[in-house]
Amino acid sequence: MVMDRTEEAVRQDSPDYMTEERLMIQSVARDFTMKEVLPVANELDPVQGDIPMALREKMGEMGYFGIRIPEEYGGMGLGVFEYCLITEELARGWMSVASIIARAGGLMNVQGWSEKKRLELTRKAARGEYLAAISLSEPEVGSDLAKVACRAVDDGDEWVITGNKYWCTFADGADYISVMCRVEGDARDGYKGLRNFIVEKPRGELPANCKGAPIPKIGYFGWKTWELAFDGCRIPKANIIGNDGAEGFKTTASGLEVARAQTAARAIGLARGALEDAIAYSQARVQFDRPIAEFQETRFKIARMAAEIEASRQFMYHVATRLDNRQRQDKEASMVKWFATEMAERVTSDALQIFGGAGYTKLHAVERYWRDARLTKIFEGTSEIQLRIISDRILGKPAHR
Question: Is the pTM of this model over 0.70?
Fold first, then answer.
């Protein structure tokens, strides 16, 4: 196959930032994906099955839940670059698997917990044994999180949460849900009245005093995405994350820089999977007495796809490197998220076109890459939100806002 290359050739062509360690990390993740992730995805995605616990356990053994968690807390202690490197490989198999690794966060900033509890649960998270669902959006609140209405009321030694949430992926399978709530004021007060809370719960269930229903999606299978209704859900007073008010929201927003770089990596992995499958198919599919890979339109399409993927990848490496150097990258993270996700939709669509009618069936993985690529333009901030952020940094905010 054209894509095959020896490790020595890859090493010689690699830029300086692709160190021996990073090449090894990439190679191991690629091998794991092709052997462990892709076969599971091909079996379960067509029937909307959940990511198996056995696969999650293998990922935990590989250290993939603790990539960025410091070694002293049980993680690998690596950077955003390695996080994105591994993410691309996992997404080449199944984007949901590349996404679940983001659900293992450090818990050392939970103010009310003892250091012992914070350390114990962070170490469990690094092994993939204590994972989160994130609940920010609401039925009437998408990108404009300042309008969050779900409320947490102080009641002695507890917080009482009441309100509706939407688009909470993994609400049932997670060990806790991080819920953004309003503790004071209303939507007119914006971010300053918002806090994030930890709602602990049994794995496989929703929290007490919380009902919900899975949202019927067209993709992103492997786990369910939920609509939730909290009705007097009580949690300990200690289960509150980080700083209060607008400062706390800034911390949440700053985490989106890494999330957007990782989303770019997910998009690149999807696009690469579609490209590699399209190349193999074009070499095997014969029409008019020759492989369709010999037709100029197919060849040029593949050339454009490969160039767009590589441009996105190098941009993603650049942003990840600057994030690891602790440089603010809100504009650049939005740029790479927009650029790579828009690219992924085009490339996966072109790959499906190369497959022709076969691409519009569930007999080939290319339709999965296409469906999931479309989602990357929506979550972690829509393409329109990214363009708003980028233009605000370049031109300043418009006077009417």
Answer: yes
What distance lies between CA 242 and its chain's CA centroid?
22
Element housing 211 (H / E): strand 210-214
pLDDT band at 32 (very low <50, low <70, confident <90, very high): very high
Q: What is the DSSP string of 320-355?
A: HHHHHTT---HHHHHHHHHHHHHHHHHHHHHHHHHH
The pair of three-digit structure tokens given for residue 375, joined into one six-digit string: 């989602």
- Percent of the chain topping pLDDT 90: 84
Residue 46 to residue 361: CA distance in whole angstroms: 10
Asked whether residue 330 is domain-assigned, the answer is yes
Q: Residue 186's pLDDT band (boundaries 50, 70, 90)?
A: confident
Work out whether strand 158-169 and strand 151-155 pair parallel, antiparallel, or are unpaired.
antiparallel
d(CA 376, CA 95): 10
CA dist., res. 354 & res. 348, Å (int): 10
Q: Residue 125: what pLDDT?
A: 97
Beta strands 176-182; 132-135: pairing state: parallel
What's the rounded Cα separation, in Å, for the pair 313 and 238? Answer: 41
- Active-site amino acid positions: 380
**How high does pLDDT run on average in the chain?**
92
Which residue pairs from 322-328 have beta carbons closer than 8 angstroms and sit at least 24 positions apart in sequence?
323/79, 323/80, 323/257, 323/258, 323/261, 324/79, 324/80, 324/81, 328/257
Weakest-pLDDT range from 104-118, 262-276, 335-349: 104-118
Q: Does residue 256 sit in the same domain as residue 374?
A: yes
- Note down the domain range covering 384: 248-395
Q: What is the predicted pLDDT for the residue at 109?
A: 83
136/145 Cα distance (integer angstroms)? 7
The DSSP letter of residue 141 is B
Q: Are 104 and 211 contained in the same domain?
A: no
- In our burial notation (b when 16+ CB lie closer than 10 A, e otherwise), range 90-103 reads bbbbbbbbbbbbbb
Task: Say how far apart CA 248 and CA 264 lie, in whole Å.
Answer: 25
CA distance 285 to 281: 6
271-298 residue pLDDT tens: 999 999 999 999 999 999 999 999 999 9
- Using CA atoms, how far apart are residues 123 and 65, in angstroms rounded to an integer? 10
Which CATH number belongs to the domain containing residue 290 in this structure?
Answer: 1.20.140.10
Q: What pLDDT shows up at residue 244?
A: 61
